[in-house]
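step=predict obj=Carboxyl-terminal protease n=487
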Amino acid sequence: MLLRHVATTLALSSALLLTLPATAAEPTTEAATPDSAPQDAPDTPSGEAASSDASGDELPQGLPLEDIQALAQVFERIKQAYVDDVDDRTLLRNAMRGMLEGLDPHSNYLDEDAFRTLHEMTEGEFGGIGIEVGQENNQLMVISPIDNTPASKAGLQPRDLIIEIDGKSTDGMSLEEAVGMMRGEPGSSIELTLLREGEDAPVEVSLERANIQAASVSSRMLSPGYGYLRISQFQENTAQETSEAIQALQKEAGDDGLSGVILDLRNNPGGLLDGAVSVSDLFLDSGLVVYTKGRLQDSDLTFEAHADTALPKTPMVVLINGGSASAAEIVAGALQDHHRAVILGTESFGKGSVQSVMPLDDNTGIKLTTALYYTPGGRSIQAEGIAPDVTVQRGRLELEKSGFEIREANLRGHLQNARGEREQEQLPDSPIAADDYQLGEALNLLRGINVFQQPGMRRHEAPSATDDTASTDDSTGTDNAPASTDQ
């Protein structure tokens, strides 16, 4: 009787997953429809048989009868012998959770709380510490902290391993359970124990939960003509916010316009596929942005750029690192393959899979990996990541204090320049490079690009006829320093 009960439940669940539509997920594809289900059932393998319950309802062909029987036996043993009484609903949901989490790190069962939390995250507001986590080798790992949240302020870093939450070991803990423990009422405290590369002992971190309102886009001018765009995650309105930020930078740049833009995707854990495509479209005027391939026909999708672009000729540098994942890698890969931007930093996280959220009938759902995505050049970066064009490791730049320097202009009685005296220029300091070495290098790269793009490579004006420059051959002079030109 128990076997028939479990088998019927599995059969109904299988049929349900093929007919329910998908909704927005991280990243998500369009809805899976009944027409997208495989038309031909696989042949029944040797030693396996289709079966039916007492009512005559047939089970899907190909289900391994022996394994179904083993599942029923485990179910019964738990009911009879487990130290605490466990209801059927809990056991069956745990079975569903185990089926999904055994597939890959990103497929899982979503109970009522997890299902609600997922929608809160995509809408950009939720309660917790502001951290994106995943699992690697069954260990709970920080993918990236979200900007301006308790996690980022406490110094959590990508690839930190969380080994304890409030003193409870995360060994064997499901991703859903771990996320549930880290979420809570704003103002409540939480203790994390971390393993961090380069540290000899575990790191203890105390945080206070907050109401996380994660604005996905921020911007500012780094120096005259050079703008900075930071996207911390891809939400529903990220493309619109990015467009507005670009307009604000253009207005601040004035009539001279923007000489360059840095797009910072470091520690961006991803988000919505549509958001990544729309942001890429802002910087591309044609061509493929990304395409996905899966087993179902509806999983094979292509996304193209439109003609309108926000910055058609402005040089760009995109910053990435090991915390740049998923949707962030879509943007970096698209701009790299179209040669629209120089990618600078370190290799990205390497999450090249697409998850679809399939709601069930009781405010729960499943998040299932349904496809892999590919960059316009046909690269699948799953488990490999985006390799930067220019590798710049995270570091700290120590600036030397400039001492007094004696130059020609400091000597008494020096000859004046043909154009007259000019006020000695002061070298600008480099607070950006000192605070953020990668960002400073990105800004220097943009400046270099602009130098080499200028006609004549910044050739100075030719001297006028009134200038006293008739003699250019200083063969009688005692100072034989070679003449030079600023190319």
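step=describe
Residues 1-57, 423-429, 465-487 have pLDDT under 50 and may be disordered.
step=end
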